[in-house]
Each structure stands twice: as structure tokens, then as C-alpha cells.
Design a protein that fits this description.
Low-confidence stretches: 331-343
Strand content: 15-25%
Oligomer: single chain
Number of helices: 13
Largest sheet: 9 strands, mixed
Strand order of the largest sheet: 2-1-3-4-9-8-7-5-6
Shape: elongated
Helix content: 25-40%
Mean pLDDT: 90
Structural class: alpha/beta
Radius of gyration: 24 Å
Order of helices and strands: EHEEEHEEEEEHHEHEHEHHEHHEHHH
């Protein structure tokens, strides 16, 4: 996982989608807020600057340190990212007479390596209120549309590009090929696969956990199941799983899922706690009060059960990458997981260290890893059915 593309997020609604497209191309990438750039290292093969709801002309427009422009790796600015690059190098970004939003036909210079294999005219998706009206002297235009002269540019002496459209959305019909070209320019090996992830994760888990005991709550959902299987493969019976029947599951679900878990070889205990949850919900009608009551009841039940396991040092969780990204605000980085995610409050209460084997994966990658681990389609394709949702709706 040393080789990666770094994505700097300026607050675009599409930033996660850029990452998803790169992962689909078997290229590992990570998202960081523009104002929280990690230390650059040899494993970073390229950098993408995202779009933003802001204007580069605003007084408080997002700005990031520009030392990465001299780091020597290819850079791709998307919409706001492209405008930031142009303005940073003394180009001119102006307000458009009308906000350009929607489909446009782009004519690229197909001799440029960014547009290799791209049609002479193809549809792209525009979404910007500003436009680059003058590029810096050391830039060249490499694509235009009918209304936008500078639809794409390149810094002549460097592999630094800017595009004023979104290649990550499906409305940009050849956008994925453009992103693929960029990763090729970066020299990426395209070897980020479920197999590689599993191999590396198992190695990391064995080193991290050794002979320690891990306790984990299972929900019957995809994330907790795949996370449990990875930990199980790493440490076997030292993983102690707890599956709680909160009385808010589907008909016969508790028995069916418990049976599936045991068939998979997991060391799992089923706990019938219906009455505890029903008592906690008695006379409550306000949705937030119900949600908190369900959460507290779960923590109490899980805490009681986990104390029966002597010497547990770790709490396993099915945290996935969007939980991490969405918890890190562009306006003030913080690594706090959303309060409603997983078993909020448990690590503090139980004084356990966290182990989160899926924290680098998107949901579709979790399913692919699960399939590679041999988990049945019934579990990987199950429709989510969160208990608090049912409790609140009754």
C-alpha cells in the first residue's frame, strides 16, 4: 500500500467519487483536507486537487501550501483545483456571465498524454461559476469547448494538468479513461486488488494483535462480517464475537444469521436481549430519545457480555473509509468517528484499543474483499436493516 495517489479535498461533493474511480482502476488513493496535507513521501505517485463549492476569487477561498508543485510528481487539478493552479501561477480566473452547469462537448488535443485514446469530441460534465480567462505564460491549452476556451491545460515543462470539468461522474463519458491516463502518467502499477488488500491486512493484523484477545459486536451486516472474517483468519479463536438480538431484527433473522456465522467458523455467542431493549423503549415516542435508548441498551448488554471474556485487549469494529473521510472536516480536521457509527462510546467505556481492518475501504471494496474471503452472497448482498430505524418508525 506504499504506492498511492494523494487527493486534496477542497470541499467538493464529488471528491469521494474521484477516489472511487481510482480504486476501480486498481490504484490506491487517500483523501486529505487541503489544509491538512500529510508529509509527502516516495510512495506518492501523483496528486489530484478536487473541486469546491467556493470561488478562487473569494477573499477566504481555500488555499493550500504549494510545495507539492515542486515535489516532482504529476498533478491534476479538477475544476476549482484547475482554477487554483492557474491563479497560483499568475493566470486570470474571472466570473462567468452564467454558471456553466451540465453537459458540454469537449475537443481535446489527443496528442497530449492526458487525452490518449480519447475521442476527438466527447461529452464532459461542467460545474463551475468561474472560468479561466487567461493562462500563465508557461501553460498551454490542451482542450476547449464551444463556450470555454480553456477546458484543459498543461504546465509545459511539467506533468501538471488542469481540467475545468468533472471526469469522475458518469456524464463525462470518457472521464474514467482520462483518470486512467493520469494514473499511467504517474507510473502507477494498477495492482490495488482485493487479494493484495487481504494479504497485507492479515500480515498487519497478525503483527498488531499477536496472541491478544479481540472482542467484537456483529450486526449481521456486511462491514462487521467482513471485518470479523479478516480478524478470524489472523488470530482464530482469540476473536470473540457477540451477536445481540435487540428485538428489532427481521423475522427469524437472529437464528439465521447466527447459524451462518457458526458455519463460517466464527467464535460467536448469540445473546437474547429483547426484553432489555423493550424495557428501555417503554413509553418513549421521540425519535432521538429512542435512538439513544437503543444505543445505551446495546452498550450495556455488550459491556456485560464482553466482561465474561477474560483478558480481552482489543475492540474490533467495521469502520470503513467513508466513515473516516466524513469525520474529517475540510474546515477543521478531526479524526472523530460519527457518533451514530458502529458502537459509539464503547472504546472509552471499556478501555480497549481499536482494531479496524476495513478503515481503508469503500463499501463496494468491502463486498469484493468479502467475496474473496468466501463469504456467502446472502450476507454480502443483504439489505441493511438497522434496529434503531425500525424502533423509531414504530
Amino acid at each position: 500500500m506504499n504506492e498511492q495517489i494523494l487527493i486534496l479535498d477542497f470541499g467538493s461533493q464529488y471528491t469521494q467519487l474521484i477516489a472511487r474511480r481510482l480504486r476501480e482502476l486498481n490504484v490506491y488513493c487517500e483523501i486529505y483536507p487541503y489544509n491538512h496535507i500529510p508529509k509527502l513521501h516516495a510512495g506518492i505517485k501523483g496528486i489530484i486537487l478536487s473541486g469546491s463549492p467556493c470561488s478562487v476569487r473569494d477573499q477566504n477561498a481555500p488555499q493550500c501550501p504549494d510545495e507539492f508543485l515542486n515535489f516532482g510528481v504529476p498533478v491534476l487539478g479538477v475544476c476549482y483545483g484547475a482554477q487554483w493552479l492557474a491563479q497560483n501561477q499568475k493566470g486570470i480566473v474571472s466570473a462567468s456571465a452564467i454558471r456553466e452547469y451540465g453537459r458540454a462537448m469537449m475537443k481535446p488535443n489527443t496528442e497530449n498524454e492526458l487525452f490518449k485514446g480519447i475521442s476527438l469530441e466527447n461529452q464532459v460534465w461542467m460545474s463551475h461559476g468561474d472560468t479561466i480567462t487567461q493562462i500563465p505564460e508557461h501553460f498551454q491549452i490542451i482542450a476547449s469547448t464551444e463556450t470555454v476556451k480553456v477546458a484543459a491545460f498543461q504546465w509545459i515543462e511539467k506533468k501538471i494538468f488542469g481540467i475545468q470539468f468533472h471526469p469522475e461522474v458518469t456524464h463525462s463519458t470518457e472521464g474514467k479513461q482520462i483518470l486512467n491516463n493520469f494514473t499511467t502518467i504517474c507510473g502507477c502499477k494498477h495492482n490495488w486488488t482485493p487479494n493484495i488488500f487481504i494479504e497485507q491486512t492479515l500480515s498487519d493484523l497478525k503483527a498488531q494483535l499477536g496472541s491478544d484477545k479481540v472482542v467484537m459486536a456483529l450486526s449481521g451486516g456486511v462491514d462487521s462480517t467482513v471485518a470479523a472474517m479478516l480478524i478470524h483468519k489472523a488470530i482464530g479463536k482469540n476473536l470473540f464475537c457477540i451477536f445481540v438480538d435487540n428485538g428489532l431484527l427481521r423475522k427469524n433473522e437472529f437464528e439465521q444469521v447466527l447459524h451462518s456465522y457458526k458455519e463460517m467458523g466464527l467464535n460467536v455467542k448469540g445473546v437474547n436481549a429483547k426484553d432489555i431493549f423493550y424495557a428501555a423503549l417503554k413509553d418513549l415516542s421521540e425519535p432521538e430519545a429512542k435512538r439513544k435508548a437503543i444505543g445505551k441498551a446495546f452498550i450495556d448488554v455488550f459491556d456485560t457480555e464482553s466482561h465474561l471474556i477474560e483478558g480481552a485487549k482489543w475492540l474490533g469494529q467495521g469502520t470503513i473509509y467513508p466513515d473516516i473521510i466524513e469525520s474529517v472536516s475540510v474546515n477543521g480536521p478531526s479524526a472523530t468517528i460519527k457518533s451514530h457509527h458502529n458502537v459509539g462510546g464503547l472504546p472509552e467505556k471499556m478501555k480497549l484499543k481499536l482494531v479496524e481492518p476495513l478503515r481503508l475501504l469503500f463499501k463496494d471494496e468491502v463486498r469484493r474483499a468479502g467475496a474473496e474471503l468466501g463469504i456467502s452472497k446472502d450476507i454480502l448482498g443483504r439489505h441493511p436493516f438497522p434496529g434503531p430505524g425500525l424502533g423509531i418508525r414504530i
